[in-house]
Design brief:
Elements (H helix, E strand, L loop, with lengths): L3 E5 L5 H14 L5 E3 L9 E4 L17 E4 L17 E2 L4 H20 L1 H5 L19 E4 L3 H12 L4 E5 L9 E4 H11 L2 E4 L13 H4 L6 E5 L8 H10 L2 E6 L12 H4 L3 E3 L9 H16 L15
Helix pairs in contact: 1-9, 2-4
The structure holds NADP nicotinamide-adenine-dinucleotide phosphate (NAP).
The site of NADP nicotinamide-adenine-dinucleotide phosphate has 31 residues, from helix 4 and strand 7.
């Protein structure tokens, strides 16, 4: 019997995914029924992205072997008590490349002082030469699929990169730190901080009044991770005191960011609307097909979420 793959990524996404998914399943030599509706007890795999206000009930999917997330961040599904099947998160070259481009672009923007240069077209010749990248330490909070790729790209440009993760890591060219002391050491040195941590109870408010106070004065902050990583009020206070010179924020506690939120009008905050790295169906479909192929062949799934750790 053909495996049944249920696309539960939302009706608006289906037209963008159908073609790439069918092509990727064909390439992986998987003969399956790819559907958007099915009797739950007939479904073998669920391709999932959050949508709507009601958490899904996975209980009736008694035959389902894995739920494959279309997104890298799984905080909206990882704690779902009805989900008993393995949950795999999205790791895909298109997503990673998008994040590398976003992070590299915004780090260079902060490093070169591009905003100040653009706003100084006033006839005054004021040559302020930026330091070289080698003189600008960057902290990368999170050394996962995305953080590691971004850290390596920045190190390749010459930035000294301090990486921070939950467990001890060894990434060539990156000063790897972990634990509370590691976070503090990274923040004390970092003139630019990038947050690429998942949203979990442990990472909530990683950047708060106390940790932000460790930063060198005028440090730049770039958050493409999740809104929960930063205490919003503490960030506004750190901007007011000058501890943080500028913040570029892609993700927020409430999305879309409400129109009356103080971040919008703040002169030293750049808001980007959760666009740092999108999941591209053309490449991500292959990641999904590979996991289905593995499951069908009895091989271990890739990128299985650790429910206890929450990512
Ligand atoms: P990942 O591979 O799971 O890596 C997560 C990293 O965070 C790991 O290095 C992990 O440490 C570290 N970490 C987790 N909990 C920690 C803790 N309590 N203390 C210190 N470090 C901790 O995730 P990823 O694929 O790189 O993605 C990271 C996040 O980016 C996603 O969860 C998502 O929220 C966000 N994202 C945003 C966008 C966007 O468009 N803005 C797009 C995609 C993803 P270990 O290495 O020790 O496990």
């Amino acid at each position: 019997m053909k495996p049944v793959i249920l696309f539960a990524g939302g009706v608006t996404r289906w037209p963008h995914w159908e073609g790439p998914l069918r092509a990727a399943l064909h390439d992986a030599q998987i003969d399956a029924d790819l559907v958007t509706t099915a009797a739950p007890e007939t479904v073998d795999y669920i391709l999932y992205a959050p949508g709507g206000d009601t958490p899904p009930d996975f209980t009736p999917f008694t035959r389902c072997k894995a739920v494959l997330s279309l997104w890298a961040g799984v905080e909206r599904i990882v704690g779902n008590p009805t989900l008993t099947q393995p949950l795999c998160r999205m790791v895909d070259p298109g997503l990673t490349q998008g994040m590398v481009e976003y992070v590299t672009g915004h780090v260079l923007r902060a490093h070169l002082g591009i905003d100040a240069l653009l706003s100084s077209q006033n006839g005054r010749w004021n040559p302020v030469v930026p330091p070289l990248a080698s003189e600008r330490p960057v902290a990368m909070l999170g050394l996962g699929a995305l953080g590691t790729a971004c850290a390596k790209a920045l190190a390749g440009l010459g930035f000294p990169v301090l990486g921070w993760s939950r467990r001890a890591r060894d990434v060539s060219g990156i000063a790897c730190l972990h634990g509370d002391a590691g976070l503090r050491a990274a923040l004390r040195q970092a003139q630019i901080v990038v947050t690429l941590l998942p949203s979990t109870p442990e990472t909530e408010n990683t950047l708060n009044a106390e940790t932000l106070s460790l930063l060198p004065r005028g440090a730049a902050l770039i958050n493409p991770g999740r809104g929960t990583l930063i205490d919003d009020d503490a960030l506004l206070a750190a901007l007011a005191s000058g501890r943080v010179g500028h913040a570029t924020l892609d993700v927020f506690r409430v999305e879309p960011l409400p129109p009356d939120h103080p971040f919008w009008a703040h002169p030293r905050i750049t808001v980007t609307p959760h666009v740092a790295a999108d999941t591209r169906p053309s490449s991500a479909a292959h990641a999904l097909a590979e996991n289905i192929r593995r499951s069908l062949a009895g091989e271990a799934l890739l990128h299985v979420v650790d429910r206890t750790a929450g990512y």
